[in-house]
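Weekly sync notes, structure subgroup
Attendees: PM, AL, DS (notes)

Item 1: joint prediction request from the bench team. They want all three components modeled as one assembly rather than separately. Inputs as received:
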Amino acid sequence: MLKFLLRRLGVAILVALTVSMITFSLIYLSGDPAIALAGESASNEEIENIRQIYGYDRPIIVQYGDWLMRAIQGDLGRSHYLKSDISSVIVTRLPNTLILALCAISFALVLSIPLGVAAAIRPNSLIDRFALGLAVVGQALPSFWFALILIFFMSIQWRLLPITGTGSWKNFIMPAIALGYYVTPGVMRLTRAGMLEVLQSDYIRTAKAKGLRPMTVLFKHALRNAIIPVVSLAAVQFGFMLGGSIVIETIFAINGMGFLAWESIQRADLPMMQAIVLVLSCFYIVITFLADLLNAFLDPRIRVT
Amino acid sequence: MASQDAQTVARSGAILPGDKVLEPSPMAQLRRRVFGHYGIIIGGVVLIAILLVAAFAPYLTPYHPILDQDLSNALKVPFWHCIVVEKSFWAAVFDGRSPFSWVEPAKFSWDHPLGTDLQGRDYLTRLIHGSRISLLIGFSAMLISGVIGTALGVAAGYFGGRVDMVVNFIITTRLSMPVVLVALAVVSLIGSSLWIVIWVLGLLIWDRFAVVMRSTTMQVRNLDYVAAAQACGCSTLRIIMAEILPNVVNHLIVVATLEMAHAILLEAALSFLGLGVQPPAPSWGLMISEAKGMMFFDAWLIGIPGAALFALILAINLLGDGVRDVTAPENRN
Amino acid sequence: MSDLILEVRDLVVDIPVATGMLHPVQSISFDVTRGETLCIVGESGCGKSLTSLAVMDLLPSTATCTATTLRLDGEDLQSAGEKRMADIRGNKMAMIFQEPMTSLNPAYTIGNQLEEALLRHKQVSAAEARARAIYLLEKVGITAAASRLTQYPHQLSGGLRQRVMIAMALMCGPDLIIADEPTTALDVTIQAQILHLLADLQKEFNMGMILITHDLGVVARVADRVAVMYAGQIVETGTAKQVFENPTHPYTQGLLECIPIPGKTERGAPLGSIPGIVPSLVGDLPGCHFADRCVHVMDACRTGRIDLRDSFEDAHVFRCLLTPDQSAANLKRGAA
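Output from the run, pasted for the record:
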């Protein structure tokens, strides 16, 4: 078990390093990053100035090494546009994205796991067809369109919820739904398939033969085993949400990482863009590593030998 | 004793050599399964309809999606705005009158059954031409990512060992990077156009191809006829093309349809954010973006292209699910 | 309290399938008394497992089950609702299944699953449940029982897991144990141990036991009474001695002929076999189900109903048109 974890950790670190290299080299796609930062109407002097400040005149390897060293220590550089420390900006914006992603994944799990279980208990019934139909529809719905539809009905037609901002908890309802519904079909199907398979197992037959109550059989015995892959999937999807919330955040004007990424792309704030991609990728790597841990913890066959 | 035994065996219903056993041919069985599957029928019909519309787009309406602008004709409403529902709906029904009536407001004209946008361009025409963009991007990005992902996945599955380790590492690295953000960053740095979007998407969404092709290749690789081909001394390339690929092709089709839908959705999202196809092209995502400011009064401006996107994605997904159900139902979920 | 723990009369199980109605169990009747082992013998597909599932009310939801009598210790099981059946299962009657490797939940410890069986039915404390679990684990021959409680199923071998299953069945002190091929999935050496264990436990706790098997060797070892099943019907019932010494149904005779007896069967002589295959149980099947494979078949065998008739001794019955004398004569002729 320990060996397995150490190996996973090693791979995770290597992946993080590779991602950092790719992220770092992204800004060179535009050719000369100094020009991109300075803007089109900048004078040669201004461009040269920027080149000095950001050290773009040094060899690439040196730039990368320097950037990496500082990043590990928490210094992600300075934003050209905002004229402030990137790390502090990220620290203020990250919590909003985290809250949004948590609400979204909670919504998805609360909706899809019970549906998946109900569908598995009565295959081919009305609830099963409803669940599968919902899954099919959910996968085909573009998230930004769904967000706009939600706004149209909830805010405009029925005036139930506010549209933009992060003032109260009400602000997070529609964004959470708009972000979370996309995960729902996958989780629901996996829960349903897992339950269908587990319910055919011999140990469920044993549980029934012991005279255990139906709820006990369903939750203590069946779901406990079927949920293991679902937990992994949910963790991975949570990681995706952190990186994929940009559309939702821009629509609802939520001051999170996605919105920050959007703004920095608009402003060609290259150091900020780099830092955001790096931070979000590292979050994803950490989350998938933790998901592996959780997976191993939930299945005694892996945990105990 | 012997004759009685033979009689006994015969009466027991055993199948003897020389009996003719009739069974539908594999093709006939497949045809029956395909046409009995609602998902394939609905998805296939809708997709073919959209393909036809896209193919004959210039001939379907008299307008041009970009050039036929008429600001005096801006924001005409679609035809369903002519349907007026009486306020006392149930009273009308009980009275025996129809609660619906047809009133053509000034903002409507049959010249533009689906209305016009802010610049007076016919919405139906834009919608039809938008399908070309979505289909082109979806198909091309799917092809590019398919080639990359299949090559990586088959190599990893067939050769195993270090090749597998390296490919797994590449896949994990790709999965760790947020696709939308990276796509946005790249497009913002090198400029956005139809073909840049196609290539960026194609170079980013190959991961599912790689994962699925890797696992199916690993399964097929251990089968006996591959070993037989190797024993005959067939070259590696020949084995891959002739023995492995034909047996993973049905999984490939399923993933291809899913990724085409994925690419279409991503392009719509990018265009919505302004970093995909650029105006004045009639990309559906772009149409929704341009209309979102007018959502208060003219919600149909976002409803129509969104519904079209939904229909296209749904059709492709149904088709993909259907192909999977028909060819490999054990891989459900 | 009577000695009769289970009374079954005319048990019928029907399952609708794509091609029609399947009749896997057709009018089975048998009794089980305390302290006695009834072995139900038959080949795969004869309906013996479904019979036991019907008694426990664990049939698949599409199956229907009826019986003239289905009584456990005097209580009518057919009129008992779902709740009452759940209270009885694991409590008054318990079942042991065939595949020990997959019959335990991999996510919970042995102790958890053992104690759960007791805590569900009786009002005892956790400590008492734990004590009983340890007691029974030792009874089934598992050493270091206390430490086993915290182990997971995957840490135990097949033989140990089956012992745990037996202990689990005994947690509430049931009156009836149904063991469905408990040793089929185990090594031959372990088989004997498990069978001995079951026999000892049965005597000690004075339970009734139904042992389902396809292995005549097992039957010979543990059975007090034997019921031979073929194609959904019981074709012969009697004490073990009666059925083994005087098999009167052609199927039973055929089965026993298949077993080579050291010393008696000649070297090089062909092993006995019963030609043909089991008939399909979908739809109606008039007459004797064994007719197509029976060496002594007559035209009358294929029509109407064939009821059980008495053999030489009391309580030994068989389902055939032949008289016991004719059958015995057949047997002697065959052996010659």
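Discussion: Chain B has a mean pLDDT of 83.
Action: AL to compare against the crosslinking data before next sync.
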